[in-house]
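Collaboration report, partner site 2.

Our partner group contributed sequences for two proteins of shared interest, and the home lab folded both. The records are reproduced in the order in which they were received, starting with the first partner submission.
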Amino acid sequence: MISAAGIITSGTNILFVTLDSLRYDVARTAYEMGRTPHLAALLPRGGWERRHTPGSFTLPAHMAFFSGFLPKLPKPQQPPRLWECRPPAFKTVPPETFMFDAPNLLTGLGQHGYRTVCIGDVTYFSRQTPLGSVLPELFDEDYWRPEFCSPEADSTRHQVDHALDVADKHQGRPLFLFLNVSATHVPHGHYLGQSTDTVKSQRAALAYADEHLGRLITTLTAKCPWLVILCADHGDAYGDDGYHGRGIAHPVVMNVPYAATVL
């Protein structure tokens, strides 16, 4: 069991990676097929957990994440949450849970000396529209460039290179480093040389991202311990029961891969 309260009180760095739109079945199949060897070597024993996302598309899912609501196990009994906004007095928070007395996690971490940094990808992190400024505004620093986005075939390499530069710049201070990976977001058919997006092309996108995410995690954790959280914000439908896209309560959208470990 991870005690986020102890981890954050001690000033341990945190890496939070969301693999945008990654379905649980795609992540699990890629893991079992050996398509993601770098991540497989770093994931907890057994690989990805199946969890339910709190939001069916990027904006509500991340608003929930940054408010303390990470994906939940699909069963009645839940482990202690990693973090939680201070609740009303009648509710008891487990000692393992980091309780922040602030309206969001990023502000709460700042009260404990953390520098919070966002490496974004989709337009909700771009600041190109008023709505696209809501999530970045929560962070001390936020970065977005067109080459971080899914139409760029080497987007994860660009994102990881920038994330490692940021981590080097902030050595000596607790860091919350957030990375929203774009490769698994549509369009990803180009990873198979096709114009349509499918389950297979998303798996190919994840296989591409695997090497760079492995490089990110191993480089960071070679210098000091990190709490590493990996999950999808939601899944995507590719014709399942006639559905396409996200923003719908279909199981392929709501079931997401999740892993958390200290490395």
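Second partner submission, folded after the first:
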Amino acid sequence: MNVQEAAEFVRANGIEGPFDAAIVLGTGLGSLVDELTEAASLAYADIPYFPHSGVSGHAGRLVAGRMEGRRVLLFQGRAHYYETGDAGAMRVPVALVKELGIPVLLLTNAAGSVQEKIRPGSLVAVADHLNLSGANPLLRDSTEGRFVSLTGAYDAGLRATLRRAAERTGIELPEGVYAWLSGPSFETPAEIRMVQVLGGDLVGMSTVPEVIIARYYGLKVAAVSVVTNLAAGIEGASPSHQETKDTAAEAADRFKRLVRAFVAELSDV
């Protein structure tokens, strides 16, 4: 991994700091880049050591610009463990956030709800997670830093900022626990019952390894899930990737309003 080379490349191609926040955009949420002014972009495929995402709904672009008077860096799509077999597939992008001196990382995803009260189309702030994948992005890391604490991984101050942003925009934003399973197949109804017993509220195939990497680098992290479906077996649900993309698109307007308000509130962090 050579994050310095990646950083030199993006700076040489018009993407320079300082930035107030970095945001990773999940499935169906990439249209947030349309909210930027003074935008400049690079394809992941052109950036040294960056992963390539092969999932529909993930454009695979790094986009810099201005939102609510602040400079932000958007990752339009991510690489997943299920694509690469590597839980650290997003290590260089997250390390780039650290290298560029960006103080805040907001992760977003499309998730299934394992609770009937959290309906498709809802936005949920992640308060904690369950790593049920059997994988960890810090495997084979030989430094003392690999023993990173994940207590308070989802920064309390940033979650308070999200709550203020939700109140300002009139959007309901409950908090929940996100369970990471590897994918790419959707979970079975029995697995969803397991997640319920363990205290999970949401289930998905991303985000958790990025949080672990971000905490490894000492970054402040928050995460928001867009609920795109009821998880397998709940009210007879049988999820599909098309449903995930369609519902994320339907929730995009409220998602954009929340993120814009969050960025505007960052001066108080």
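Feedback sent to the partner group on the second submission included the following. The first helix runs from residue 3 to 12. Residues 3-268 form a domain with the Rossmann fold fold (CATH 3.40.50.1580).
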